[in-house]
User: What shape does this take?
Amino acid sequence: MTHSLGLEGRTVRVGGQPRRALLQSLREFGVRLNAHAETLLEHPVFDNPQSRDLQLVERTVQQLGLSAGGTQSQVFEAARTHGFQLCPVISGPFLRLATMAQPNAPDSVLSAGRAPTGAIHVASKPLSSDEAYPKGFYLRVVDDEVWLRAYRCDDTYQWGPEQRLALVAPTVER
Assistant: This one.
C-alpha cells in the first residue's frame, strides 16, 4: 500500500496569505491540528509569508541512499546530495490544503514516539535548535480525518528507511 501524495512534478503555491487567512482556510477544509502544529503556526515566519511556487517531489529515506535510515541531519544532507532542496517551513499547511485526498493511514495511532505510518514529512530546516520546539510538519489522514501535525525530535532520533518526505525538486536550467 502506498501513501503517496502524488507530488511528482506537482507545483504548489505556498505563502501569500497572512496567518489569520491560512488558519481560516485550514478550519474551512476541516484540517485537524495537533498542539505542535499550532505552536509552529504561531512562529513569525507565518505572519505574512511571500508567495512562491514550488515544484515538489516525494522520496523515501531509502530512495535518498540511506537504506538503514538516518538522523534528521543525515537525511536532509542526503536529500541535498541528490539535488533536492528543503521546503520552506511555511510549506506544510499549504501542502496540506493542496493534498486533501491523501489516503488513510493503515493505523489510527496518533503518537507513539516513532514515525507515524502513512505520514509524509515536509522536509524543512528547523526554526529552532531547542529540542522542545517542533521541528517540522507532517501530513497524515487518520480514520478519514485530515491532519496537519508537527513533530519534535533531537538529532539522535533515527528516521526509518520507509519514511516519506516532501522535498523541492532540483531546478532545471533552460
Q: What stands out?
A: The chain has four helices and seven strands. Helices lie at 19-28, 35-41, 72-81, 91-98. The two ends are 37 Å apart (CA to CA). Residues 66 and 74 are 9 Å apart (CA to CA).
